[in-house]
Specification:
- The complex is a heterodimer of chains A (about 650) and B (about 375).
- With about 650 residues, chain A is of the alpha+beta class.
- In chain A, the strands form seven sheets. In chain A, strands 2, 3, 4, 5, 10, 18 and 19 form a seven-stranded mixed β-sheet that branches.
- In chain A, helix 1 packs across helix 2, helix 11 runs antiparallel to helix 25 and helix 17 packs across helix 21.
- Chain B has about 375 residues and is mainly alpha-helical.
- In chain B, strands 1-2-3 form a three-stranded antiparallel β-sheet, with helices on one face.
- The chains are: A alpha+beta (about 650), B mainly alpha (about 375).
Chain lengths: ~650, ~375
């Protein structure tokens, strides 16, 4: 010991070191350490002794009490799921509600031969092959102890028949469960969304909310749309029931109960009749429509065609229906208003005009002479106008009314794309509008920076990342890289209609607490005000009114009892290298998309909307008439006024978009 | 044969057989209980055994490293731990409402786990460096070394782990000879400050404490855990219900029964006798750890071995106390028993450090 410590310490204490002293110190340290350790050891013994005392208390002294609790009267704390809030439209029409129904449930871990059990059950209650398939799917996804529904919505007779035979089926039970019903089926499915069984990912989210206890007893959770984004409002507070259960785990009697608190009701800003009228106006065509109240940002109608029946998803969709929905070329599951990004085509022109006025690039009277095409100096390629021979002298008003491409080719050639980007961003393009349902896509508002990032991959060369003048020219008429979602378009038109004041679009108007009767309005706070001059806005709006009076929207708005401002647009799907576009000759799915953005009445707009008809051809033909119907319905209460939309592929006549 | 013997010699050389035997006995208790808790599914047991293999390999490697080499990793490990904790605060992934994880792209790590070893390591290194002239200033520095990671973990928020970190640091200070006056003073100050600390707690932390006082306040959450665990243990009686026969366990009454609450399964099935056996095993483990600490040749070895041993005790005590309802519910696994690979790994690294201290002591007794 002496040697060891002496050696070890010598290095440090060699300056005037006195070994004996150091060793004594080290020994003293060790002694102190041992004493400290001994005290800690004593604490360990005392602490463990305390634990053993606790065990003796629990396992000997109170053993009888706990044994009673555990053995003869097992007390189960049973959560009682709260009633999910009702969703209504702005007039109180029910769009989604819960109702109680009997289900036949199997706890797979307690059943020896599942197939035999299901076969035997099929003799008592009706079990279709579809039920079996769905049960199999649930079984694959489930954890050990879950009770899984084999059949839902049992009839009273079926319940009675099973009840008599219950003893034959350990692990099978009839349960009263809450179901969700969407009375309008496909109508509005894309904003309503649907609920579905809680999966692992949902559980993680619930844990993040620290709501795990509150979701005990809840089997379903909002998966999409309003059901998803307002899940926490809709769910409510779970109640608790203490029940005695017998050795088989069945409830014998209730000991105490605290009632659940139902979730909050949601009143949407949607008018379901307007929604129905809008969906009907689409007929069999695919597309999207978003109608907003420009003064509040309330969503009045939100159409994505085709839709799907949300009721299919509630008890878990069967594989055949899922396959059909998922693989259909019409993409019924795609939320087009939120996630469909389409080139805006000519509907971008009023916005670009406003930008040009604001930046001073153009004055209202400045005119160009339109020969029917535009050429970049030194290049042979001609960017064509829709009207061969051109529109003659064109000022800003006329450029919007007749939708003159050449005017915007020239404007684009003289404007830096990053300036365009900066102005268009303030209208909400290229970003999220912040609508209160999930899954919104930003679309593409191109800029130099965007192109550099988009083509940053190793498969691209530097010249792929460079911004060319030609890119600006295409973007100048809403083609090329540019792609907006219908929600963005409706939002931007609403800003123009509302004199530059932007509101965040929202579908939920108010949240109602059922218990207290308290109503919370979803605030319509102006998100921001555009830095544009009122006279510039007035000019653009006047031109948009001109579109419907003397321009491309004239036919659709013939005889309307109100004045509407609008702009048609056609988005190229398929590039025809120099050939003349003839809709009837092109495969239906490669035809152009038709756009129409509009607001009405022109002097004090109450509704602003964007319509997109996929492969609809010219906007004036197929999209504008849908807007007309929606306006007629909303402003006049008459769903059948106005001309019927023309089927795509018809004679384009001499109208440009 | 000779080769085999030499290989065996090589493998067994750094292993402290007594310590290893006790640890493995506790692991065996855990695996047996896990099999019952997992409703006799082999998957969890296999998983746990796979984690065990990794943990044992890590233990062996660490046991081969001399303590002074381990000491050299103290500063970098501590610095890394603090950097990662700051990283968590800035870019952490939120799980269960707390920002505890750091995403590395391919996997997520919880830096507070690393800190559980790095902090005592750092403190032991510090005291060793200034051995022989440790003054109150050094204790102040040490307090700061504890406070930085503890504060970072506390604000995640993870009060339980922050307290455990503080405890692991405190043990080093205590063993290094922190004055009793300060210890008593701090304890008194903490007691006096308790009402003020209450205001600093997060809602969930207050809820847990209130639930601990009155379990019926949260019958579906932590209170449910606590009262169900008491029923499970209490109904086990003296001899227990027998392996695989715990009704509370198998009727699905017992939550988290593989992890933090596995002791309730054990208590139900093996009764008071089983509990006492387990506690005796822990006492033996701790006793051996303390022996290694007293035999250590350096201050670093003593402090490391001592604080690791006391941490084993703390985990075991806090977990069993929580499951049997004498301590509030905090997320602490039962050492060597609860299901979970990360915990097993850090526990066996701790065992590895103990073995390293033991194997590299210079056997010079006067």
């Amino acid at each position: 010991m002496r040697k060891l410590f002496g050696n070890r310490r010598r290095g440090r204490d060699s300056l005037g070191g006195f070994d004996g002293h150091v060793v004594r110190n080290a020994e003293r340290d060790l002694f102190l350490f041992k004493r400290r350790l001994a005290i800690a050891g004593l604490a360990v013994i005392v602490a463990f002794g305390g634990l053993i005392a606790r065990f003796v208390y629990l396992q000997v002294y109170r053993h009888g009490h706990y044994e009673t609790l555990a053995e003869s009267n097992r007390i189960a704390v049973v959560p009682i799921a709260p009633n999910r809030g009702v969703i209504t439209d702005r007039n109180g029409v029910v769009l989604a509600q819960s109702h109680s129904a009997y289900t036949l449930e199997i706890q797979p871990s307690r059943v020896r031969d599942l197939d035999a059990t299901i076969d035997a059950l099929a003799e008592l209650v009706d079990v279709t092959p579809r039920d079996r398939k769905r049960f199999r799917k649930l079984l694959e996804e489930s954890k050990n102890f879950e009770s899984l529904p084999l059949r839902t919505k049992l009839t009273d007779e079926e319940v009675a028949r099973f009840a008599v035979n219950r003893y034959r089926f350990p692990g099978v039970e009839i349960k009263a469960r809450l179901f969700r019903h969407y009375p309008f089926g496909e109508v509005g499915s894309h904003f309503l969304g649907h609920i579905g069984r809680i999966n692992d990912k949902d559980l993680e989210k619930i844990a993040e909310w620290e709501a795990t206890a509150n979701y005990k007893g809840t089997d379903y959770i909002g998966k999409l749309g309003v059901e998803y984004s307002y899940e926490r409002e809709l769910h409510g507070t779970t109640g608790v029931e203490e029940v005695e259960v017998d050795a088989g785990g069945r409830a014998v009697r209730t000991l105490s109960r605290s009632s659940p608190v139902a979730g909050n009701n949601l009143r949407l800003s949607i008018d379901i009749k307007l929604q129905q009228a809008a969906e009907a106006a689409f007929g069999e065509r695919r597309g999207a429509l978003v109608a907003l109240d420009p003064g509040t940002g309330e969503v009045l109608a939100f159409v994505s065609k085709p839709g799907f029946d949300p009721n299919l998803f509630v008890d878990g969709i069967d594989p055949a229906s899922w396959k059909e929905l998922n693989e259909s070329p019409d993409k019924p599951l795609l939320n087009r208003p939120l996630r469909g990004a389409y080139p805006p085509g000519s509907t971008i022109k009023p916005f670009l005009a406003l930008g040009a006025l604001t930046s001073g690039k153009r004055t209202p009277t400045q005119s160009i002479s339109d020969p029917g095409y535009f050429q970049i100096p030194g290049h042979s390629h001609r960017f064509r106008d829709d009207k061969p021979g051109g529109h003659g002298m064109v000022d800003m008003h006329k450029s919007i009314v007749v939708s003159c491409d050449t005017y915007y080719y020239v404007l684009a050639s003289e404007t830096d794309i990053d300036d365009t980007h900066a102005f268009m961003s303030t209208l909400g393009f290229g970003g999220l509008t912040g609508i209160d349902i999930d899954g919104e896509q930003p679309g593409v508002l191109p800029s130099r920076d965007w192109k550099r990032k988009r083509f940053a991959g190793r498969n691209y060369r530097d010249d792929h990342r460079k911004w060319y003048l030609g890119d600006s020219i295409s973007a100048g008429i809403g083609q090329g890289y540019t792609a907006f979602t219908p929600v963005q378009q409706a939002h931007a038109v609403a800003i123009v209609a509302n004199n530059g004041v932007a509101f965040r679009p929202h579908i939920v108007k108010q949240v109602e607490d059922v218990r207290t009767g308290e109503v919370r309005q979803v605030a319509a706070e102006p998100a921001r005000t555009l830095a544009v001059k009122p006279e510039h806005l007035a000019l653009v709006r006047e031109a948009m009114v001109g579109v419907n009076k003397e321009g491309t929207g004239t036919r659709a708005f013939a005889g309307a009892k109100y004045v509407a401002g609008g702009k048609t647009g056609t988005a190229q799907v398929f590039s025809l290298k120099g050939e003349k576009y003839e809709a009837s000759k092109i495969d239906e799915r490669l035809r152009d998309h038709a756009w129409y953005v509009a607001y009405a009445p022109a002097d004090a707009p109450r509704i602003a909307l964007a319509v997109l008809v996929e492969n609809g051809g010219f906007g004036a033909q197929s999209a504008a008439p849908i807007a007309r119907r929606v306006f007629d319905y909303f402003l006049l209460g008459d769903p059948l006024a106005g001309p019927a939309p023309v089927a795509p592929g018809g004679d384009p006549e001499d109208e440009s978009d | 044969m000779d080769l085999l013997a030499r290989v065996w010699e090589f493998v067994a050389r750094p292993i402290d057989r007594f310590l290893f035997g006790i640890a493995m006995a506790i692991v065996a208790v855990g695996v047996v209980t896990l099999f019952s808790a997992a409703d006799q599914s082999a998957a969890r047991v296999t998983n746990q055994l796979a984690s065990l293999a990794v943990a044992l390999a890590a233990m062996w490697v660490v046991a081969n490293v001399p303590p002074q080499t381990i000491a050299r990793t103290a500063v970098p490990l501590y610095a890394l731990g603090v950097v990662l904790l700051v990283g968590v605060a800035l870019f952490g992934v939120v799980v269960n409402g707390s920002r505890r994880w750091l995403s590395l792209g391919f996997t997520r790590i919880q830096p507070s786990e690393l800190m559980k070893i790095a902090l005592p390591l750092m403190l032991a290194w510090y005291f060793q460096k200034f051995e022989g002239r440790i003054g109150w200033k050094d204790f102040a520095v040490a307090a700061a070394l504890i406070a930085i990671p503890a504060w970072l973990v506390k604000r995640q928020p993870d009060l339980g782990t922050a307290l455990l970190l503080t405890a692991s640091g405190f043990y080093v200070l205590y063993l290094a000879g922190l004055s009793w006056k300060i210890i008593v003073g701090l304890t008194a100050a903490a007691g006096a400050a308790a009402p003020f600390l209450w205001n600093l707690l997060h809602d969930y932390q207050r809820r847990r404490i209130l639930t601990f006082i009155d379990p019926s306040q949260d019958p579906l959450g932590a209170g449910y855990h606590s009262s169900q665990a008491s029923i499970a243990i209490g109904s086990g009686g003296v001899v227990g219900k027998g392996w695989l026969n715990g009704t509370q366990t198998h009727l699905d009454f017992l939550p988290e029964r593989h992890t933090d609450f596995i002791f309730a399964v054990y208590g139900e099935e093996f009764g008071l006798i089983g509990n006492v056996v387990l506690i005796v095993l822990y006492v033996m483990l701790i006793g051996r750890g303390m022996m290694i600490a007293t035999n250590a040749s350096t201050l670093f070895g003593r402090l490391m071995a001592g604080s690791i041993t006391l941490m084993f005790f703390t985990y075991a005590f806090v977990n069993m106390g929580m499951v049997s309802g004498v301590l509030p519910v905090v997320g602490v696994p039962l050492p060597f028993v609860s299901y979970g690979g990360t915990a097993l790994l850090s526990l066996f690294i701790g065992i590895g450090i103990l073995m390293s201290v033991q194997a590299h002591r210079k056997l010079v007794h006067s």
